[in-house]
């Protein structure tokens, strides 16, 4: 009888000690889920600030500048490669101030993008980003001019869950529009080989989802 009671007492003491011991789970409060290769889609609010309209609004022009700052949305689809790389594409449209030279001035961008994540195993992760693409600018979704673009910048991504993140990024954009004449007859974007330059800073606030297609 006494050996049985001694055994039960020892087991009970061991259980109490285990219950009172601190948890040693590998996942800490600020730890990040290990990323894996997966599709990633997103939606963002975008603001485009014109730092310099360049030759799109030449200094000696009689008409006011038709490329001001604006805002809109971005949709994005890409593929996350492990914990360091993301490659994908984005479509963005923003409405801009055109000094009433256009009824509805819309800038559309189609970009191929890449990100390099500065992975430190934390839920908040910084990244560097680059992109190239094309743009169209005109009235009512039309094309008064079009050309290429180059963009580069940086941002930070915060993991909300293993499948959802929010991100904020600041990007420099160089627009290279083809020269054109506006509704007043003013020539815009005149430069080498018939193309001009405009400089912008883009800000994005995004919600992105990994692996959006359910698996059966």
What is the C-level CATH assignment? Mainly Beta
Percent strand: over 45%
Distance between the termini: 56 Å
Please identify, by name, the CATH architecture.
Answer: Beta Barrel
Number of strands: 10
Task: Provide the CATH topology.
Answer: Porin
**What's the order of the H and E elements?**
HEEEEEEEEEE
Assembly state: single chain
Mean pLDDT: 85
What proportion of the residues is helical, as a percent range? under 10%
Quickly give the structural class. mainly beta
Sheet having the most strands: 8 strands, antiparallel, barrel
Helix tally?
1
Task: Tell me the strand order in the biggest sheet.
Answer: 1-2-3-4-5-6-7-10
Low-confidence stretches: 1-28
Radius of gyration: 27 Å
Description:
The chain has one helix and ten strands. By secondary structure, the chain is mainly beta. Helices cover 9% and strands 54% of the residues. It is elongated, with a radius of gyration of 27 Å. The model is unreliable at 1-28 (pLDDT under 50). It has a single domain, classed as Porin, CATH 2.40.160.20. It has one helix spanning 2-20; strands spanning 38-52, 70-81, 85-96, 105-118, 124-139, 145-161, 164-177, 180-181, 187-188, 198-210. Strand 6 and strand 7 (164-177) form a beta hairpin.
